[in-house]
Amino acid sequence: MKGRIHRRNISGCGLAGMMSEDGRLMSGEGIIRSMEVLHDRSNGLGGGFAGYGIYPDRQDHYALHIMYDDIKAKEMTDVLIDEWFEVDAEEVIPTKRVPGVGKAPLLWRYFVKPSADFNECGVCEEDYVIDAVMLVNSTVEGAFIFSSGKNMGAFKAVGFPEDVGKFYRLNEYEGYTWIGHGRFPTNTPGWWGGAHPFTILDWAIVHNGEISSYGINKRYLEMFGYKCTMLTDTEVVAYSFDLLLRRHNLPIELACKALAASFWTDIDRMKAQGKKVADVYEALRMVYGSGLLNGPFAIILGHANGMVGLSDRVKLRPLVAARKDDMLYIASEESAIREVASGLDRVWNPKAGEPVIGELKIPVSNTDAVRELEETVA
Amino acid sequence: MKTYQLPEVKIERDKDRCIDCQVCVRQCAFEAHKVDEDGDVYSEDEKCVACQRCVSLCPTNALTIKDNTPFVKDNANWTAETQKYIWKQAETGGVLLTGMGNPKPYPIYWDHMLLNASQVTNPSIDPLREPMELRTYLGSKPDKIDIKMVDGEPVLNTKLAPQLMVKTPILFSAMSFGAVSYSVCEGLARASKELGTFWNTGEGGLPQNLYEYGPNTIVQVASGRFGVHSEYLDAAAAIEIKIGQGAKPGIGGHLPGEKVGPVVSRTRMIPEGSDAISPAPHHDIYSIEDLSQLIYSLKEATEYTKPISVKISAVHNVAAIASGIARAGADIIAIDGFRGGTGAAPTMIRDNVGIPIELAIAAVDTRLRDEAIRNRVSVIAAGGFRNSADVIKAIALGADAVYLGTAALVAMGCHVCQMCYTGKCNWGIATQDPYLEKRLNPDVAAERLFNLVSGWSHEIAEMLGGMGLNAIESLRGNRLHLRSIGLSTEEMDILGLQAAGSPMA
User: Fold this and answer.
1) Concatenated DSSP letters for B445-472?
2) Helix, strand, coil content of chain B in percent (nearest 5)
3) Where are the domains of chain B?
4) In the CATH scheme, what is the homologous superfamily, with its name and number, of domain A2-377?
């Protein structure tokens, strides 16, 4: 499977996201309709979605979505999974035949917890899961874990996004955050794993653009143990957020300031005005310079506690945001939002490099920080 | 003893143009031009070093210096140069001496690398319309920063190591006062201030009158410890421990007594007229742990306010050595490739010891990343950067910034005649002779240096924008923007490059 994708893809795209900050659950039908409006931004070579809150009955388990080329790849992967995890359930991901979505790989999902003895590895639980995902993805021919978060899942395929959504029967799931993506790749690997979103743990990224700094972003992330196995620039975005938010505990605003940094002229001006935060911005650029995402992009990041929209520092790709009541919408085009929401309170074009942040009013407690807090309290 | 050496150049004087004004006679410290008792000017080819000073100043363009390499019958082995060296040594019994960097036709890897540009899928960025950022911070960085929230505002909770901020990733390389004239030092210092970059004293100390340029000065601590005292360290923006130099890895330095006049004597803290001899190793550094002690001694002496750089020449084991230096506590590692210049070096060493800077940058950057310590140090590359394309390729390979030595001298008038060690530089650069030195006007020197670096910076901004990048850090170590042409797979492997024409990856 990975053998098929030797080269990094570059692509144009359409993207959309919606979340209820109250944590209300919505069927996946809305995000499919939203993406359908953006049909012309993709060319049928990749569509995908991620939904959060979709596995309430197994919210303490990591949901591994895996595509296999053949049963042999599954058998090899199952050995590794049994070694690394305790499997609560495994099943075929339900799909239905849809015109426009071609022959599918074997699609399976597993609900797992790390093996009881994982603590002996001396790493935290999330790093353990990442190691396992990277091990499978880089060593098992024909197997690809494309989703590994808790109470969330990614669904992707070769096809137009609205067809992919129907193929995966997303209208039968309910989530509080949905993000979607349609691809317009400039080459045609035709590999299901190459569609967006790209995920690691509960981070899911949909991305329109090209990261011209990919070469150094990749080498930078490799120093922290990430393996960029998929040769896509979108993958580095997902790992960058994992590094900055989960491992380095940066607030979301500052993580975005590291990835789409303020210009020195702005930082200098803030310094001249005596704003202390300028020191923080300067330090972010000094320390995380190799992580700066340079080149045209608009991204939507989904995670357990919310959703973030971000464009590059000169906004070379479109991104529109809107709010209504507890809902936050982000999309490549306003029409994708209007299709699913009327009477919006506010519609705006976020400035270059300025993040749009949606957060659950009551956060899900699965991050290190919250867990540490809980332990301290206990 | 009669010399068998043959003249290498021929001075052609167009008698129709020559007005016997004797400018050439006065300008040539090598006495290649003479005047006879009738007032007619004539030339002696064997004395000419081809520095082109007379040609540049001749008011009637009467002079041309031509290559006159002696004819050698049918032989690729016993070339004119080989024979010349043998005659020289047969006549003197000495070590062959020379100046400047390695001139041999070794592969120039810069000329085997091609840069990328954007088309359609990502837009190129026009530096005339959009911000284009070349600012670079040199020094040790932590792997992460801690933030604490105070009244809802993020505040840094990590103390950062001292940094050098350069507005463009180009600094001036170490050239010592003594080897070069005072005017050169003043020109470099003033240009650095104007450009927002740094110059480097080399091992010659900092002349008293240039202390005002301290904030743009890197001071060196070399094996001879010339001119090192507490005010010298305090005056500087950063301190560089010189272990080696690309032109002469493994050996020390020798400034002949004739070059040690009153100001050099005061600045270096040695008696007037005495030879200044730098030992090959530092006599307090025989190991990496000794180096670490000196690094921390200097940090203690300056209360951890300045980055400490360690300069080494690019030798075979450079990657492992650089890793050791990073772990020994250096903030910056300066690596000098075998094309790096010098005021004086044994010819055999200059031409045969060390490795090209291109390979050294790639090997060091790769090694530091493999060991996950790349953040801990900045890497400054040196050794024969000829133009802005060389500089931007060095950054794409993994350097944080580059040092210019030879290019800066050429900007000031040097014509690379390689006679620096004679002290007779007709351009007022590599000399302490007051008559020659005053030929270099520090105002003009500073302006020419400023112009050169400004021009290169514009070109770098233009190429960066063409690649769709608007900050230099996005190119640093980003080898996907380089492709190799005409290299072996081993060389490509060391450089971390793919062949031109291979698709993106």
Assistant:
1) HHHHHHHHHHHHHHHHHHHHHHTT-SBG
2) 35, 15, 45
3) 9-94, 165-473
4) Aminohydrolase, N-terminal nucleophile (Ntn) domain (3.60.20.10)
Q: Do B505 and A254 touch (CB under 8 A)?
A: no
Mutation target to probe the A interface, by most A beta carbons within 10 A, among B122, B138, B166, B168 is B122
What type of residue sits at position A7?
R
Strand (E) positions, A136-213? 143-147, 152-157, 174-175, 177-185, 198-200, 203-209
Rounded-to-integer distance, Cα A28 and Cα A18, Å? 10
Query: Which residues of chain B are within 8 Å of residue A283 when distances are taken between CB atoms?
Result: 145, 156, 158, 160
Q: In chain B, which residues have their Cβ closer than 8 Å to the Cβ of A280? A: 147, 154-156
pLDDT digits (tens, 9 = 90+) for B433-474: 999 999 999 999 999 999 999 999 999 999 999 999 999 999
Q: Indicate the Cα dihedral angle A299, A308, A348, A175, nearest 10°.
A: 100
Rounded to whole angstroms, how far apart are CA atoms B84 and B79? 9
DSSP at B112: G
Q: What is the pLDDT of residues A137-173, one digit of tens each?
A: 989 999 999 999 999 999 999 999 999 999 999 999 9
Q: Which amino acid is at A159?
A: G
Q: Does CATH place domain B9-94 in 3.30.70.20?
A: yes
Known catalytic residues of A are 13
Distance CA A197, CA A200 (A): 10
Domain at B165-473: CATH architecture = Alpha-Beta Barrel (3.20)
Name the token pair of B408. Answer: 């800066």
Interface contact flag, A296 B468, Cβ < 8 Å: yes
Give the residue from chain B lying closest to A229, CA to CA.
B505
* Nearest CA-CA distance, residue B406 and chain A, Å: 30
Single pTM value for the model: 0.93
Compute the nearest-CA separation of B134 from chain A (Å): 10
Pairing verdict, β B482-484 and B498-499: parallel
Closest CA to A126 of A376, A370, A374, A368: A368
The domain segmentation of chain A, as residue ranges, is 2-377
**Alpha carbons within 13 A on the beta-carbon side of B164:** 35
Whether the CB-CB separation of B383 and B336 falls below 8 Å is answered with yes
Q: Is the pLDDT score of B505 beyond 70?
A: no
